[in-house]
16S rRNA (Cytosine(1402)-N(4))-methyltransferase RsmH
Amino acid sequence: MDKQEQKHKRRVRYKGTHPRSYKEKYKELQPEKYGDTVAHVIRKGSTPAGMHISICVKEILEFLQIVPGQIGLDATLGYGGHALEMLKCLDSKGHLYALDVDSIELTRTRERLEKLGYDDKILTIQQMNFSNIDQITAGSGPLNFVLADLGVSSMQIDNPDRGFSYKNEGPLDLRLNPNKGISAAERLKEISKDELQGMLIENADEPYAEEISRAIISKIKKGTDITTTTQLQCIINDALQFIPIDKRKDEIKKSCQRTFQALRIDVNNEYEVLYEFLEKLPDSLAPGGRVAILSFHSGEDRLVKKSFKRLLREGVYQEIAPDIIRPSTEECRLNSRARSTKMRWAIKA
Ligand SMILES: C[S@@+](CC[C@H](N)C(=O)[O-])C[C@H]1O[C@@H](n2cnc3c(N)ncnc32)[C@H](O)[C@@H]1O
């Protein structure tokens, strides 16, 4: 046998049938290439990966009554779906300001809207927290309409690198602006059991706050760093094994959702910035100016409701939505993420 034959031949590595990364897994992430896949996913009632389906578009446009020449603000640009509809109403006359704290998605949305022909003549996009709305109006003047669609976008939830969902393995981050503040993993390292329990109750009405916070803090005290989404999910799962078997799976799922929500609200100071935004809104609106806010959990909605009601009593608003507005049954069927939406509106006196 000559030397050449004896030489060890490396086996060709089995690549497997599974996609290796988030990007390879979902064709929807390249909508220009796979338009049919995107349409099919939406018809099935799901949100294509890398996209966000805007909620209550019809209700928002009916209320805002945007006409060409007006000046408005989309305080939460996200995928830009609402912004696009508002820009169509402006018909190249007037101006739309749009904000988002998320530098990652903001860049993609800016490119998408630019490709559709919306440049800085009609649209100004800024990476900014909506709590600084006064900095926008210092340049724009009073606004005729404002939209705030609170919380997270589907792109953020679906991207495992952001750590927003317990369903995918990823770093336990949960920051809307990954360059600011501390991640949820870092936050857990410094928090006491009582503070964590309070956070779970206040931010998510978590019924098992005591058990979950005890389990998390006990792990940390034993020297375990909770750095990934699935690590946290496993701790919650282990802590709730006392729930009767027939309800356990469902209850654990809800507790995971609520715990992630509570942490997200905390690391992004969501209540504080919403409060500041609501306080600054009246001075940002022109007389007769209209604001619509979509919220996704009771804590947010309570803040909006209280602010609108107080400012109506004080005569700052001439009218507010008498009750919450919900997306239609059909919209909820087509987009399960719409189900928890509550819309409220106000008109400046
Ligand atoms: C539900 S999405 C908005 C979706 C958007 N309306 C659309 O049609 O595509 C919420 C967006 O608001 C952003 N956001 C959340 N809190 C914010 C804040 N305080 N200031 C600015 N943007 C914020 C999030 O980063 C996210 O992109």
In short: The two ends are 95 Å apart (CA to CA). The chain has two domains: 57-154+271-348, 178-267. The first strand starts at residue 71 and ends at 74. The beta strands are 71-74, 95-100, 123-127, 143-149, 285-295, 317-320, 342-348.
